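for the record, two folds in this file. i put them one after another cuz i was lazy. first one right below, seq on top, structure tokens after. the second one comes after a little note so u can tell where it starts
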Amino acid sequence: MPYTDTWDASFEALPTDSNYVYEVDNYIRQLKLAVRERMEKDHYFDEAGTDADHGEHSKITFHAQSAKPTAVANKGFLYTKDVSEKVELFFEDEDANEVQITNEGNLNMSAGTLEAIIGTIYPVGAIYVSTLDTNPATLFGFGTWEAFGAGKTLVGLDSTDTDFDTSEKTGGEKTHELTEAELAPHVHDGLPVHSSSTNVGTDTTGYWRVDSNVTTGETGSAGSGTAHNNLQPYIVVYMFKRTA
């Protein structure tokens, strides 16, 4: 954006010796405006709230250097230079070691460096989880990966529980048929069943009476014994284990 004043030698000479004292406050305001306008190119000044008393960087603009800076003890420099007619980002440490950080819009990183970084995050034995079916060997460009845990969930190791005390131990079942031992305690109500038709009738009180020749009855049966669904809520993803 255009500035209110051009910052040049004549601007810096204000106020002049011929200006009156009462004019100085206007020049101070003019200088403050000029400084703020130029700082706003890379800074944000909040007009209210907790950041109202100071500016924050909205971006950092680097002017491309023709050569790397002169090294200074206990200091480092972040700067840009032209490389093959493209501005690239560099860092120089106190021993004058220069590192090129960017290269044609990408991080300036060799394949070996990238492999070392990703290999630290995903060493052999690590599990990679994704909603995409692309093998990590294709994504990362190295390593041997195999599909892992098909149809199974992951559980954290618990050394105090024999079901979960060993890595890659498997268990559980998708469906389950209840055994008698797994049923909750319960009783069935039923009526006695007469074993014959003799000596059965009503007495003078109008109630049915039966003789002692009775057998225990059974209630009606229900249920099929079919195994029930034993699944927890789930979401399906692709999992790969690095093997080499």
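(here's the note) second protein begins now
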Amino acid sequence: MSAAIKKLTGFTMVLDTIMKCPKLTVLDISTLENVPTYVTIDIEEFQKSCPKLKVLRMGNNRYKGTPKTDEEVEKSAGFPDLEEFNIPDLSGRHTMHNTIVYDVFNRILHKSFKLKVLDIRGRCNESYAVLETIPAADLESLHVGLSSMSYDDPYMGLFLKWRQSLKTIDLSWVQNVELAIQELTSGPSLPLEKIQLTGSNIEYKDLRTLLKKCPKLNYVQLESCRNLVRGIKRLYKDEDINVLKEKIKNLGNI
């Protein structure tokens, strides 16, 4: 069972119904409209009522949980089957209005060991320490582009945690991307297939290392990367990856 809700009034009206849907597997409230303040959710009751939830999309708005004690949070079953959690803000506001309340983030994901996809693009006031609390060991898709993490330093081993499972990563507009690349490529070959680097400060040495250590890459987005020459800055897909490798090779030791 799945549900998509567009109006805050609609969300409020059906919340009680949602709490009675133990078979709900997909919930999308990312298109809620006319939300002037926070959307308040009883997270633990939500988890208790929807134990089979696999996909939760909560983008473009602000959320907070009803107050609970640490004991109540710890006793919650969490979302043990959750595989995808999307909470981006792509509105372009880039203010404190698009922050994720850490408490909400932690309470939603603290027992989501099966999580595969995480999207927090465009969110402010987040740190890599927030992501380190995620118990999932096999995250496959991570999107942090345009978040305040784009400017955080250092990465504190975040990519070491998931380097052997990540297949897709979005580092758009990350200004210290070399640290991420160093962590990602610090060991054996990677399973990485897709990387989004739009607007980042990636340099040729990092790009060479990435191409060498990621033999499965079939998508590399390099638009607006200011440290690269104009002929390099574009999207490369599938067979185009060989074109990129040849271009980098022809640039020599730049």
